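Subject: Interface between my chains keeps coming out wrong

I've been trying for a while to get a sensible model of this assembly. When I model each chain on its own everything looks fine, but I need the whole thing in one frame so I can look at the contacts. Pasting all components below, labels as-is. Any help appreciated, I'm running out of ideas.
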Amino acid sequence: MNKHVVLYKKLSAPLMERLQAHAEVTLIDDPKTQEGLARLRDALPQADGLLGASLKLDAPLLDLAPRLKVVSSVSVGVDNYDIDDLTRRGILLTNTPDVLTETTADTGFALIMATARRVVELATMVRNGQWTQNIGPTHFGSDVHGKTLGIVGMGRIGEAVAQRGHFGFGMPVLYHSHSPKPAVEARFNAQYRSLDALLQEADFVCLTVPLTAETEGLIGAEQFARMRPETIFINIARGKVVDEQAMIHALQTGQIRAAGLDVFEREPLQADSPLLQLDNVVATPHMGSATHETREAMARCAVDNLLAALAGERPKDLVNPSAWKNT
Ligand code: DGY
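Reply #2:
Try treating it as a single job with all components included. I did that and got this:
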């Protein structure tokens, strides 16, 4: 019998053709609307595989999918899934690491540059016809090269940020992670710090940790209080790693200088968010991996993982290996 795959994200024509050569495919490209969700619920009972992103696949949805063998997420982050529940059900979960590492680190650096040099604020001034004389100190930014870069979370993306900072901008690199990483220290001349020490010392604090029970709310009022008025805070991880109210307070009161934010507690960010009233905030729409090349590479990787799992092979990017034993 043909395998049945439910897509809740559109694929490029070549990837769709590849998938259709191996399975019957149902596409639901609007799973967050009521109508789309209803169609997803209708399709789940036949699904052997699911592929998509940015949707919370909760237990009531999974209960509708008794045949499901694999969920292939087009993301590196897996915070939308209850991994233990999937494992208990014997459902494989796969993600798309590696292919988005460099692009996401580029986004981190775009935010570092944009905040420190006030790119968005000053470009808006020019666009609005307000550039009427040579700019002076009230419009000056701060240097990036040579400043201390503090990276919270030294996984693949953290390393790619460190690489840019060390080799490209001559920045001393500090990092905090579960445990020290000697190879990273040797490569980027990086130094391990406790979280508190990093927050105090770094000129740029860049979050790259995954969202887990352990990292939720990691940066709150107490942590912002440890930063300095010169500190620039960058979040390319997940919004919920940060207490957004505490961050807004730190930005409004000058406890920190600026923030470059690609992720938020609630996405899309509401138009009336106080963050959007602040000139010292650069807010982008969760675009970390959003280039044509990288999004296609992620989708290809997700299709590879899905097809491997449906063929009974162990997928390359298996998040829950214990579910593999269960199958
Ligand atoms: C990821 O891949 O996790 C990106 O943040 C997109 O969600």
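Reply #3:
Confirming on my end. The chain has two domains: 4-99+292-325, 101-283.
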